[in-house]
Design brief:
Two copies of one chain form a homodimer. An eight-stranded mixed β-sheet of chain A has the order 3-2-1-4-5-8-9-10, with helices on both faces. In chain A, helix 9 packs parallel to helix 12 and helix 9 packs parallel to helix 13. Helix content of chain A is 52%, strand content 13%. Chain A folds into two domains: 179 residues, NAD(P)-binding Rossmann-like Domain (Rossmann fold, 3-Layer(aba) Sandwich), CATH 3.40.50.720; 150 residues, N-(1-d-carboxylethyl)-l-norvaline Dehydrogenase, domain 2 (Orthogonal Bundle). The mean pLDDT of chain A is 95. The N and C termini of chain A lie far apart (54 Å). By secondary structure, chain A is of the alpha/beta class. The first copy, chain A, contains 17 helices and ten strands. At the A-B interface, helix 7, helix 10, helix 12 and helix 17 of A face helix 7, helix 10, helix 12 and helix 17 of B.
Chain lengths: 335, 335
């Protein structure tokens, strides 16, 4: 039995209690101030408001004010906070982190520091703790993980011992875990699949506005997106085969059918301006992580002088330069 | 202007008239005896009964009995006949084929000759004509091609001159064509994506029978399917990158969302036996090309002693050995 503390009582943080509890670990789920209502409900034995399931036996929820108690003696700390909040929230908690054997992060993607330098989130976490960082990628809808439905993910990290310990802690017959040392490929895929899902979402919007199916366009964009994510991964020191697997192609697959990021593309494809579409989604409380990911990815590609990413450049032009969506994306997909 | 004759007035044969007519070619569409009603409707100026569009100006439909007239002087002959009928139908027409500069085949996949030897369809066609064979792959729903909606495909062939001529004849701003010399990779992907779509369809069926989403399972199967198709292509002398592109990942993407082959998997995932599911679909007139493709692929993998295709072996076990679908496919996806 390992003491595990999960930071963030959102969907994925809470969902990961399921495999950990099934393996008999003692799990503490700490909620941020934004999670106050969720934590109160879970402590009262009620179901998570979005997942619809209560905490399994043996798991306890902690409110924001009890971070020290939640983290005391934790051997594995799971970071399940939205990417843009990782720096401030984990920064505040750093003093309580102690000396865990690993930080497991399901927060994904890129962050820019004060100087504007783009970093992957595991590198951000490494500034707060000397524990090895394990990143989680792959197609993983939280509501299915919470219900113990079959899910295959990838754990990535440079420390083979910590990686094996974490895999053993989380893996169940329904939560299958591959491991990789390619944390860069994993993070690039995790972040950029949200960006490319916007492009595929445009096909959904064209369908809606034209009344005509656009399956061929959507399917044509898919392998280009995977190819470009692979090029970006390689340029940053990762591997293309990581992106071709669960972490990239697999996660893009689930994101374009059941994710939020495609909604931005759908609105744009249906005729809204990108600004109006982002405002409408933000007003509805929908976080579109792919929107900043397009910016980060585009900046990295430009800084690196990376060629062979026409779809990323087209996405950037559509979102930020007023380029017409259908023509611009189609031209990029067929160059 | 090139004289083009299309053999088969089914969905794809008829749809390809659209880009050819847009490029100003003289197109003759010949229907098999099974297409008699379609040909009569098109000749009367009516719409194709499934595609919903009439023949463009400059194209003419020919009934089965007028094969000689339809083929006279054809410079490009397009084979758009269901795979299992290619040998008998093209065999009967061989005497009228003349000396075209290329045979373009949208019929896909494998065939077994009298001795049981498995061959890709372009090799079958080569027994009837000395013209270079060009194979067409990639995500391409016929109803979208017929309407001039954006479609990106791959033309593959060993004869670079014939390949370029055919690309020039078909390519339009909405029908984009990549070319490759890897006809083997193209055909393996074209055939096997139908087989793997059955596996992904099982996830749809599990959703239906359990009332629970199975997005994670479907997405986990996707990159495994692409990887296995790549291994099969390489074992047969083709390339994995062909399979990772439009012809494999792209075509699988469209097949699992809008294809027929997933329907077999869906029925099996929902609890029907494979035999009952196949009977029900056949009775409804639905051809499941993936069903024989599983058999062909499995036989090839076995003959070649090919490892690393657990999902294909699992599919075969589910369809032909009574293996339980969910457990068998999940075990294969996570080995």
């Amino acid at each position: 039995m390992t003491q595990v503390t999960i930071l963030g009582a959102g969907d994925m943080g809470t969902a990961l209690v399921t495999p950990l509890a099934r393996n008999g670990h003692a799990v503490r789920l700490w909620g941020t101030p934004r999670d106050a209502e969720i934590v109160a409900t879970l402590r009262a034995g009620g179901p998570h408001p979005r997942l619809g399931v209560p905490l399994p036996v043996g798991a306890r929820a902690f409110p924001a004010g009890e971070a020290a108690a939640a983290l005391a003696g934790a051997k594995i700390v799971v970071v399940a906070i939205t990417s843009d909040a990782v720096r401030p929230v984990v920064g505040d908690l750093a003093v309580h982190l102690g000396d865990p054997l690993a930080l497991v992060t399901v927060a994904k993607g890129f962050d820019a520091d004060e100087t504007g330098r783009v970093r992957i989130l595991p590198d951000v976490l490494a500034t707060f703790s000397s524990a090895p960082v394990i990143a989680v990628g792959g197609p993983s809808k939280a509501n299915e993980v919470a219900r113990g439905l079959p899910t295959a993910v990838v754990f990535g990290g440079a420390d083979a011992g910590a990686l094996a310990r974490c895999r053993d802690a989380f893996a169940t017959p329904d939560y299958a875990i591959e491991t990789t040392a390619d944390i860069v490929g994993l993070e690039v895929a995790a972040a950029m699949k949200n960006a490319y899902a916007i492009a595929l979402g445009v096909a959904d919007g064209l369908e809606r506005s034209s009344g005509q199916p656009h399956h061929n366009l959507r399917a044509a964009l898919f392998p280009r997106a995977v190819t470009e994510m692979g090029r970006l991964a390689v340029a940053l020191g990762g591997r293309a085969d990581t992106v071709a697997g669960l972490a990239g192609a697999g996660d893009l697959q689930v994101t374009i059918t059941a994710g939020r990021n495609r909604l931005l593309g759908e609105r744009i494809g249906a005729g809204e301006t990108p600004d109006a579409a982002i405002r409408a989604l933000s007003a509805a409380g929908t976080t579109i992580e792919g929107y900043p990911a397009v910016g980060f990815g585009h900046r990295l590609a430009t800084d690196l002088g990376l060629g062979g990413v026409p779809l990323l450049r087209a996405l950037h032009a559509v979102l930020h330069e007023g380029a017409p969506p259908r023509e611009t994306l189609w031209a990029a997909a067929t160059t």
